[in-house]
Amino acid sequence: MKYIDEFQDPDLARRLLDEIHATVTRPWALMEVCGGQTHTIIRHGIDQLLPDQVELIHGPGCPVCVTPLEVIDKALEIASRPEVVFCSFGDMLRVPGTGRDLFQVRAEGGDVRVVYSPLDALRIAQQNPDRQVVFFGIGFETTAPPNAMTVYQARKLGIPNFSLLVSHVRVPPAIEAIMRSPNCRVQGFLAAGHVCSVMGVEEYPELAERHRVPIVVTGFEPLDILEGVRRTVAQLERGEHMVDNAYARAVRPEGNPAAKAMLEDVFEVTDRSWRGIGVIPDSGWRLAPKYRDYDAEYRFSVEDIRTREPAACRSGEVLQGLIKPHECEAFGTLCTPRTPLGATMVSSEGACAAYYLYRRLDTTPAPREATSVV
After folding, report:
1. So what's the architecture of 65-170+257-299 in CATH?
2. In the CATH hierarchy, which fold is given to the domain comprising 4-61+171-245?
3. Closest by Cα among 255, 259, 260, 271 to 202
4. For residue range 14-29, what is the model confidence (pLDDT) as tens digits?
């Protein structure tokens, strides 16, 4: 089979694939939630190894991709100020805002630094008491606990020149929004294992029951993906809709109690805008009132910045699983990793980047149709 020799255990991969092929009797559409899973699928050609009846739909689980344009513009505004040291993970520097990105701000003289931990930014604040140090806190439930811990430490240590620009989002409300869409075709989910390692699985049974979809917690290696698909298809064929943990080596049902306690102390749940999708109720976090002094939006008075997505970019439809990346007219032409229209083309977990990197360029784009998930 194509790409099969790239798997760590080709014999196990063949057995899993044989079982999936033998089990499936009708078409099923599954969504992998995480962008890391998407890259594994496209890199190893897993979608091409599966039966024709099994379609993998790429979901909105790339934190860089769903960070809304208005938050990027807030970051650009803050980073441009002479008194600010703006710290971020490297994957945010090339995400386009309205007219420029953080790399361009740095080229124009802004003090934009790549760090490897939010605690690095806190250390910079300690070392530069005359500068305002801002860390760009984005991501799902996986990156929220260390960002929460950093704000907690800043308050505990009395470091007044540190703040957090928050754009944290939560997976279960996104699944809810997808399932409520009139355009939804998803019949089962491969849930992100790293998210569940923090939060556990307690929010998923209600979703699975309400929407009658199996949700299988899945890892990120090729064999993890195949096992997740095997379990999801088996449930669908039996008419079941349960939560199944296929990533037990990393995920406990209760998650990580210490991380969850830190999140509950530092953050509060709020509505969040998702890039290309819109506002999803209760889908994000913001700093709790007692930590508001460490909120960069509040400190730098950028709360009112509002922007619009570029009309040519269909990344929102890609994130909703309504189209594949190559079905966008701009894919590979107007939109490339060097000239991206949206974050899905530059993020290391973006579906458009995966299709471009692994040369899924040979499909003629489909005619455009206006669609929306929320």
Report:
1. 3-Layer(aba) Sandwich (3.40)
2. Rossmann fold (3.40.50)
3. 255
4. 999 999 999 999 999 9
